[in-house]
Structure formats: structure tokens, C-alpha cells
């Protein structure tokens, strides 16, 4: 066989084995708590995924094919290919291992957003326990060593292998290899080139995600997010999409019940890290984890069908404070220029004579948080470095109980009215919290339950102390999670229930007749601004992406996203749509096809407009 063809054949086989290996690791590492499936079904993910694997291999072969044409490259083929394949092998290992880990923690495949976190790698490492970090390093070293052996012994030209290819041999090799590479890259002769629909084969979302090649997915995601100024979600004429979105919010000026006894209470917002509805029994979750929040719901006004539009803390903060739904691909909080232009609760409260403050027990450089808080005009910003160095802390920073204590001490010296926000952090990987374990066990689910119970207990201690303070009777508290979580039930992030979160209004300013009621209006935590401000006699019209959940005729809808995936809910119907596949990923089986298509248009118009708004800031 022509030497070049033998060489390209060895490369192809090597990468096919490599991607199959990582698919096996993905399945084994992440399938324990997923929907059940048979061994045969899991093997089909290898069969269907091979098509996308070959597409990636086609891209990887392009450079060696070009190099084999030139005489000067042929003389140094071994050296050139050794450097090339070592670099490629390292990148593939990092991407594929990163994909396994990211799916474990986030429930999504590696994507553009994950790359943005590389600007602050500490955020990645503090989420890992010491054991996980050591195992990760050992795996990288071991895999790197094994691949280096493969490259030297089998893949690259041997030291004693004569490379003497005639012009005819080179031409024939290129004429054979080039069309095959194009065919692989396209995924076949079909009209449309390679896309995720070509590898989807199952009704089980996890198996479809296993079939997708993480390198191809990341490349597509980066191209869609970062290398174009076009709106990847543009389907309608702008005026048509704008009209649909306007109709979703046209009830904001309707009348609503006044649930407060005063127009100028102190306002304190607790943004609760990862406090999913799955740990609150009143919201359909497990019992015994959040007894304090359960009690607050019986004494305040709770919202039972609230969903986080994003899955990360930086998305949750801007949802709560700016009424801004999560933007696909990009975090608006990480863009100082864009986030500074957003309307915000702290800006409005400051303009109305409130003293404003933000408390966080971690480092404020997390996701550009320090710059964000300054641009939102918080007058007082406290972070980890502002606490006594002896204050007990975990990997992410000061434990919640000490942050709450600091806030309580400061309130006694703060002039009323005040607006204050606390971002908790203890309920975050690796879930290290002080005190005896409320839910013993080293598995992640029980660690999560234990850390959620710890934060809940800290909230209870806060209120026990706060009730003794003079400012308490004139203070409205808002408790809302920044986002949902896959734990403790090992949810799949494609399903709406992974985004279900609590939102509670609590405090003496709430009229007695409204205490204990539950609002069932479907919405998101970005709806807080338009719900809260009118109760205080403040204008909320700047918050155009927020709806008043207390308006009786407000539209029942909620939105969530995962980069190229749109999640949309209306009434009891829901769907998940992939822009990569241009098809449904999941939907409510009880909804008719016409009903699903009808509400899909609303969701598509919404995501088109929110992305267009992001681009315009």
C-alpha cells in the first residue's frame, strides 16, 4: 500500500479508538443516575456517534494531507507529525476529559461558556475536592504517557522506515484521501452537512448526548457564539419577533393586589446558591432538608412555579438584580460595559434614598463580580478579604453563618431604609460545610443535602437573631435561588424540573391576609423586579424582560436555555428545542403537535429577541 495511505489509515484508526474510549468513559462516568437503558442501546451510541467522530477526524487529517504534498515537509515528516499529533492528542484529552467532568457537574456538554471560565481557573479547581483534584492530575499524566507511547510506536513514521514516495504516489494518495476527508467532514452525501440530528438515535437524551463528539460540539458552539456578529437564533423578521414578545408582557400595566402595609420597607434579598426546589418538600422536593424555608413559605408569599433561566451563578445574579434572563453562550455579568447599562434594583433603591450593600463570603473577582457590583452602584461591598482572617471558611470562602452574622452586625449601624443583598456559597461543590453532618454519607447526593440543610439552618439562625432588632418590623425579605441543580436527584439538565427553584417574600410588612398564600403563576426569577417594585410604588417599566407575577392575567410562561438549546413552558405544556438539530429534543407528550408548534414560536421569538438585546447593549 502507498506509504501515505498506510499512514493516514493508522491515524484514522487511532482517533476512532480514542473517541470510542472517551465515549465509554462518558457513559460509565455519568450513567449511574440517568434514565435506565440497555447495554444494546448504549452500544448504539458508539455506532451513531462514529459518524461525527469521522467528521472530526476529517478535520484532523487535513493538515497531514497538505504536508504530504510538499517535498520539504516530507523530509521532516516524522518531526512535523510528532509535534502536530502530540499537540492534538493533548487538546483532545483535555476536551474529552473536560466534557466528562463538565457533564458530571453541570449536566451539559463542553461548550463556549465553559471556555470563558478558563480566564479564572480558580473557579474550576475550588469546585473539586482534594481527592478529585489528585485523581484528575494522575489521569492526565497517565493518559498523556500512554498516548505518547502510541504516537511513537505505532502512529508516527518509524525511525528506520524509509519514506520515499514518487510524485505519482503522492498524487494518487491525495486524490484518494482528499475526497474521503471531505466526505467524512460532511458526514456523508446527504444534502445538509454534519449536524447533531445525524447522530441522535434515542428517546433517551443522555444516550444522544453520549453519541455527540465533544470536539465537534465545542467547535460548533464556539463558532456560533464567538466568531460571528450574527444572531444564531434569528428566525423571524425583527418586528414580528418583537410583537410576539410584547404580547407576552402586555399585562404588566394591569392592576394587581397590594400585599404590603408600607411603601418604603427595608429590602433584603438572599440569593441562595443552588437551592433547588428538589430540597423543599412544599415544592415537590424531599422533606427534612429545608425546614426553615418551609416555615417561611407558610408565613410569607411564595411562588411555586419559578424556573431559573440559566444554570450558573453569574446568570442567576443578573436575573434577580437586573431582571435579565440568561443569555445563550454569553454571560452579561462578565461584560462590564454591557452589564453597567442594565437597569438594576440597587440603582433604583439608591436613587430612592436607600443605603445599598452586597455581601459575599468568597472572592469578588469571581465572574467579574466586583466590577459588576461597582457598576450596579452598591455603596458597600463586602467579600472574603473584608472578614477577619481567622473567620472559618471552606474552599469557596467564608461559611454562610458568618456572612449572615456580619450582615446582622452592620444592619444595627445602617441608616434606614436599606437595600441589602447576600449571595450564599456553602451549597456549592465540593459541599464542605462545618458542623456535624445532617445527612451523613460521602456520596455527592448526601453531601448536597447536607450543605443545603446547613444553609437553611443558617437562615433560621439569622431570623432568630433578626427578630430581636428594631429594624426587623419594617423589613421585607426575598429568598430566591440563583439556579437549580442536578443533585440530589441526579436530574438531566434538559428537563424543566432541573431548573425549578424557590422564591419567597417574607416579613412583617406583608399584610396578614396574604401571609401563607402560594402564587402559582409560571415564571422565572428575572420576574422579581417587575413583581417587587410596583409594591413599593416604584416604576418597573425599565425591566422589559420581567413580568409582574401578582397581576392576575399575566401570561403563564417560563424560559430556560443551554446555549443552543431552548426550553419553553406555557401553562402545563413544555418543550425543549435544539437549534443545532432544528428539531425537538423533548416535549410534553400530552401536548398536540399543533400546540407544541404554537408555543414553540413564542419561545423562538423570545430567545431571538433576548439575544438581539444582548448584542445591542
Could you say which overall geometry the principal axes of the C-alpha atoms support? globular
Give the tally of β-strands: 13
Largest sheet: 9 strands, mixed
Q: What distance lies between the first and last C-alpha atoms, to the nearest angstrom?
A: 59 Å
Strand content: 5-15%
Helix content: 40-55%
Can you tell me the residue ranges where pLDDT is under 50 for at least 5 consecutive residues?
Answer: 160-164
Mean pLDDT: 89
The count of helical stretches stands at 20
Radius of gyration: 27 Å
- The helix/strand class is alpha/beta
Helices and strands in order, then pairings?
Elements: H1 3-30, H2 39-67, H3 71-75, H4 77-106, H5 112-116, H6 122-125, H7 130-155, H8 167-186, H9 205-211, H10 214-226, H11 238-249, E1 266-272, H12 291-299, E2 301-307, H13 313-322, H14 336-340, H15 345-351, E3 355-360, H16 369-375, E4 380-382, H17 400-411, E5 418-423, H18 444-466, E6 475-481, E7 500-506, E8 518-519, E9 523-524, H19 528-532, E10 557-562, E11 565-570, E12 573-578, E13 583-587, H20 593-616
Parallel strand pairs: 1-5, 1-6, 2-8, 2-9, 3-4, 3-5
Antiparallel strand pairs: 2-7, 6-7, 10-11, 11-12, 12-13
Helix pairs in contact: 1-2, 1-4, 1-8, 2-8, 2-9, 4-7, 11-20, 17-18
Task: Provide the descriptors you would attach to this structure in a database record.
13 strands; 9-stranded mixed β-sheet; 4-stranded antiparallel β-sheet; alpha/beta; 617 residues
Short description:
The chain is α/β, with parallel strands linked by helices and 617 residues long. The protein contains 20 helices and 13 strands.
Amino acid at each position: 500500500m502507498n506509504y501515505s495511505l498506510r499512514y493516514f489509515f493508522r491515524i484514522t484508526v487511532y482517533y476512532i479508538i480514542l473517541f470510542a474510549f472517551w465515549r465509554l468513559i462518558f457513559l460509565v462516568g455519568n450513567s449511574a443516575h440517568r434514565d435506565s437503558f440497555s447495554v444494546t442501546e448504549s452500544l448504539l451510541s458508539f455506532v451513531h456517534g462514529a459518524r461525527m467522530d469521522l467528521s472530526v477526524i476529517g478535520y484532523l487529517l487535513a493538515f497531514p494531507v497538505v504536508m504530504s504534498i510538499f517535498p520539504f515537509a516530507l523530509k521532516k515528516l516524522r518531526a512535523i507529525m510528532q509535534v502536530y499529533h502530540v499537540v492534538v492528542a493533548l487538546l483532545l484529552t483535555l476536551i474529552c476529559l473536560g466534557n466528562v467532568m463538565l457533564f458530571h457537574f453541570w449536566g451539559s456538554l463542553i461548550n463556549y461558556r465553559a471556555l470563558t471560565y478558563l480566564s479564572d481557573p480558580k473557579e474550576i479547581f475550588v469546585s473539586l475536592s482534594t481527592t478529585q483534584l489528585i485523581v484528575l492530575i494522575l489521569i492526565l499524566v497517565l493518559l498523556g504517557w500512554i498516548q505518547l507511547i502510541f504516537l511513537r510506536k505505532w502512529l508516527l513514521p518509524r525511525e528506520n522506515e524509509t519514506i520515499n514516495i514518487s510524485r505519482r504516489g503522492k498524487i494518487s494518495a491525495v486524490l484518494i484521501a482528499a475526497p474521503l476527508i471531505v466526505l467524512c467532514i460532511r458526514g456523508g452525501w446527504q444534502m445538509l452537512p454534519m449536524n447533531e440530528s445525524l447522530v441522535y438515535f434515542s428517546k433517551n437524551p443522555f444516550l444522544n448526548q453520549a453519541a455527540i463528539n465533544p470536539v465537534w460540539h465545542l467547535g460548533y458552539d464556539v463558532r456560533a457564539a464567538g466568531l460571528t456578529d450574527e444572531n444564531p437564533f434569528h428566525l423571524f423578521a425583527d418586528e414580528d419577533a418583537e410583537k410576539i414578545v410584547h404580547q407576552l408582557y402586555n399585562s404588566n400595566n394591569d392592576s394587581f393586589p397590594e400585599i404590603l402595609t408600607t411603601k418604603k420597607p427595608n429590602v433584603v434579598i438572599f440569593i441562595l446558591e443552588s437551592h433547588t426546589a428538589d430540597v423543599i418538600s412544599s415544592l415537590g422536593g424531599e422533606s427534612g432538608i429545608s425546614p426553615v424555608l418551609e416555615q417561611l413559605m407558610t408565613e410569607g408569599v411564595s411562588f411555586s412555579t419559578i424556573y431559573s433561566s440559566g444554570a450558573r451563578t453569574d446568570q442567576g445574579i443578573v436575573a434577580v438584580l437586573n431582571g435579565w434572563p440568561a443569555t445563550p453562550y454569553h454571560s452579561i455579568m462578565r461584560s462590564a460595559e454591557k452589564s453597567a447599562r442594565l437597569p438594576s434594583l440597587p440603582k433604583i433603591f439608591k436613587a430612592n434614598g436607600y443605603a445599598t450593600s452586597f455581601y459575599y463570603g468568597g472572592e469578588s473577582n469571581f465572574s467579574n463580580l466586583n466590577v459588576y457590583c461597582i457598576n450596579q452602584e452598591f455603596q458597600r461591598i463586602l467579600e472574603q478579604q473584608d472578614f477577619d482572617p481567622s473567620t472559618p471558611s471552606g474552599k469557596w470562602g467564608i461559611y454562610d453563618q458568618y456572612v449572615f452574622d456580619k450582615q446582622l452586625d452592620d444592619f444595627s449601624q445602617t441608616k434606614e431604609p436599606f437595600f441589602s443583598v447576600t449571595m450564599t456559597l456553602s451549597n456549592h461543590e465540593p459541599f464542605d460545610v462545618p458542623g456535624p453532618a445532617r445527612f451523613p454519607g460521602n456520596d455527592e447526593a448526601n453531601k448536597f443535602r447536607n450543605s443545603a440543610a446547613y444553609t437553611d439552618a443558617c437562615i433560621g439562625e439569622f431570623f432568630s437573631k433578626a427578630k430581636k432588632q428594631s429594624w426587623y418590623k419594617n423589613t421585607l425579605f426575598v429568598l430566591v435561588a440563583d439556579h437549580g441543580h442536578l443533585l440530589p436527584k441526579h436530574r438531566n439538565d434538559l428537563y424543566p424540573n432541573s431548573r425549578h427553584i424557590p422564591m419567597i417574600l417574607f416579613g412583617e410588612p406583608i399584610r396578614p391576609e396574604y401571609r401563607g398564600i402560594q402564587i402559582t403563576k409560571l415564571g422565572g426569577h428575572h420576574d422579581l423586579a417587575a413583581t417587587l417594585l410596583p409594591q413599593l410604588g416604584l416604576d418597573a417599566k425599565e425591566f422589559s424582560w420581567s413580568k409582574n407575577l401578582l397581576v392576575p392575567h399575566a401570561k403563564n410562561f417560563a424560559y430556560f436555555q443551554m446555549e443552543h438549546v431552548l426550553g419553553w413552558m406555557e401553562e402545563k405544556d413544555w418543550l425543549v428545542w435544539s437549534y443545532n438539530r432544528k428539531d425537538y429534543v423533548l416535549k410534553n407528550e400530552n401536548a398536540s403537535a399543533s400546540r407544541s408548534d404554537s408555543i414553540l414560536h413564542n419561545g423562538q421569538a423570545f430567545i431571538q429577541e433576548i439575544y438581539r438585546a444582548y448584542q445591542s447593549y
